[in-house]
Design brief:
The complex is a heterodimer of chains A (115) and B (227).
Chain A: H1 3-19, E1 25-34, H2 41-52, E2 61-67, E3 70-73, E4 79-81, E5 97-101, E6 105-114
Parallel strand pairs in A: 1-2
Antiparallel strand pairs in A: 1-6, 3-4, 3-5
Helix pairs in contact in A: 1-2
Chain B: E1 2-11, H1 14-30, E2 33-39, H2 45-55, E3 62-68, H3 73-78, E4 85-89, H4 98-104, E5 115-119, E6 136-142, H5 149-152, H6 154-159, E7 162-166, H7 178-188, E8 193-196, H8 205-226
Parallel strand pairs in B: 2-5, 2-6, 3-4, 3-5, 6-7, 7-8
Classes of the chains: A alpha+beta (115), B alpha/beta (227).
């Protein structure tokens, strides 16, 4: 259960970014969570709400964008989501594919309200 | 009042990432091979390390960091082999992070350490998110667990270079399918290396030692190539 420390890291990083812009207020944090990131989005949302509830951060919305494990075909270049450990390219049938994305844990963007 | 969208594109754990990158650079410079061992509790990490330390030559520079939520038991077990072993007690935290490693090695001379084992807190989930500056993650799975573990915990199997399938001496007594476990590991991580071991009847330990020596040669070679 490391979602608590991750939720705190998200809030801290977002606050640091917000502090760079004078008078801005943090409204929304959008986070990308890859399915291989080892983070449970539900638990992350729960812990984020837990640490912000009844604090000055109560109104901040957390948007979680789940990123599927995606591979690229070495032969035809198609990008496809891997399901049930199936690595064969759905377009050309090649099994020569490489990992493209799906392990990220990053803040994509913030929404700030500026006076 | 206006709402503005600000692109950030920043890793959530970028502070950990920064420290891990610094550590990796230091390890590369000193030619220290650092291996991060991860498993669920009770898979036999500590016993595997005991066996390994017992068969490594004393003139080799070896050190161990072992993480647990409580107790110094593992460091006590691992310090019997003439190599330095230090316990990191996380006090409740379910994983080691890069800063804990940085702190733990602060009084060690890395130039004298060829091989550093980091035994992570027993947990298949959280340690996978934290880079410790290691050269490779190794996941240990024992045959008393389920052969579907690689599918249930894809993150750690995806990020580990090697799967040590441990306690294979117990295979006659448990309903564990090695073929299935290996196929599931390959599904999660195509090309993953797999070694079957038993610390009781010593099966596969020679293969494990060969893997270690080969990786140490690579770590040393990187330094030699630079000079």
């Amino acid at each position: 259960m490391h979602e608590l420390s991750i939720a705190m890291s998200i809030l801290e990083a977002a606050q640091r970014e917000t502090a760079l812009r004078q008078g801005a207020e943090l409204r929304k944090i959008a986070v990308r969570v890859g399915e291989l990131a080892g983070v449970d989005p539900e638990a992350l949302r729960f812990t984020f709400e837990m640490i912000t509830k009844e604090t000055e951060f109560d109104q901040i919305e957390l948007e979680l964008d789940t990123i599927a494990r995606t591979h690229r075909c070495a032969d035809c270049g198609a990008e496809f989501a891997v399901k049930d450990g199936e690595f064969v390219c759905p377009r050309c049938g090649s099994s020569e594919t490489s990992f493209l994305r799906g392990d990220e844990l990053e803040i994509a963007y913030l929404e700030l309200e500026e006076a | 009042m206006s709402v503005q969208k600000v692109q950030v594109e920043q890793k959530v754990l970028n502070e950990n990432q920064r420290i891990a990158a610094e550590l990796r650079e230091r390890f590369r410079h000193s030619g220290t091979l650092v291996l991060n061992l991860i498993s669920s509790p009770g898979s036999g990490k500590t016993t595997l390390l005991e066996r390994t330390l017992a068969s490594l030559p004393q003139e080799l520079g070896v050190a161990v960091l072992t993480g647990d939520i409580q107790t110094e038991n593992d460091a006590r077990r691992l310090s019997k082999f003439g190599f330095p072993a230090k316990q990191i007690t996380t006090g409740g935290t379910c994983h080691l992070d890069a800063r804990m490693i940085e702190r733990a090695i602060s009084d060690w001379d890395l130039d004298k350490i060829d091989l550093l084992f980091i035994e992570n807190v027993g947990n298949l989930v959280c340690p996978s998110s934290y880079d410790l500056g290691e050269a490779a993650k190794i996941v240990v799975l024992s045959v008393t667990e389920g052969s579907d573990k690689p599918l249930k915990y894809p993150s750690i199997f995806f990020k580990s270079e090697l799967l040590v399938l441990n306690k294979v001496d117990l295979l006659p007594y448990v309903p564990f399918s090695v073929d299935e476990a290996m196929a599931n590991a390959q599904k999660t991580h195509p090309g993953m290396e797999i070694i079957l071991t038993s610390c009781t009847n010593e099966q596969g330990l020679d293969e494990w030692m060969r893997w270690l020596k080969q990786r140490m040669a690579v770590a040393k070679g990187a330094v030699v190539a630079e000079v």
